[in-house]
Amino acid sequence: MVDLRTPLFIANWKMNKVGREVQAFVGPFCEATQRQSSRGEMVLAPVAVYLSDLTKMTQGTHVQVAAQNCGAAKSGAFTGEISPVMLKDLGVRWVILGHSERRHVFKEDNALVNARLKAALEEGLTPVFCVGEKLEERKANRTFSVIEGQLAGLKDLGEAILKPLVIAYEPVWAIGTGENATPDQAQEVHAFIRQWLSKNISSTFANRTRILYGGSVKAENSAQLMSMEDVDGLLVGGASLDPLSFGEIVNRGLKS
Ligand code: PGA
User: Fold this and answer.
1) Do residues 143 and 189 touch, judged by C-beta distance below 8 A?
2) Is the pLDDT of residue 240 over 80?
3) Cα(117)–Cα(157) distance, rounded to whole angstroms?
4) Whose CA is nearest to atom 9 of ligand 1?
5) What's the mean pLDDT in 196-204?
6) For a designed S-S bond to 58, which of 29, 63, 90, 162 qualifies (C-beta 3.0 to 4.6 A apart)?
């Protein structure tokens, strides 16, 4: 069961990198990780305007491409949104949803994130569904209840459609702060998420669903985080902007 969870590493570039910087990343990163390419999946998430270019640049390599968000409708009067139909049309298979910046800076609530998730799944995309508590919620011992609230919508979707789902645990207090969750803190929440999936979806689904950790991941902590039983991959922001730094995170993470 467990070995079905191929290690997965995702670079979330957020609103960084113009076209020439996107292009300059691909070669060095592919070279740095080539030797490990059969041992894990590697995905780059540029801003939407470069999805098409990056998809072309990575063709024939071991690297895949993700969008950072997608709309909840197939088409229509939704200014500024990008439909999952359009991502699929570009050949983009992955989409990050419910990232903490979407939830907290852009005020996407659970209902909206769930609607985006449903739309992505219906289009056959592979969503990376992000959950995580804020510092004040952790301090008030509300970590598990917040995460439960974020996961609750999965129950309505049903196991069949959820099949490709990836979950990312990203404690808000660890994102971009330099303060990562300790491997034990990450493991505790990952185990909680897997138990929740087992109870509310099925044990088969829980066992084969990948749960990534994100929040101040760097080369120095990737192996330790990846050595935890329920950590199946890493979602990396700041340290993914440099190809050799992200390559090192992948390489060390795969050795653990
Ligand atoms: P960080 O961001 O690695 O810069 O903390 C992670 C994320 O937001 O996905």
Assistant:
1) yes
2) yes
3) 9
4) 237
5) 98
6) 63
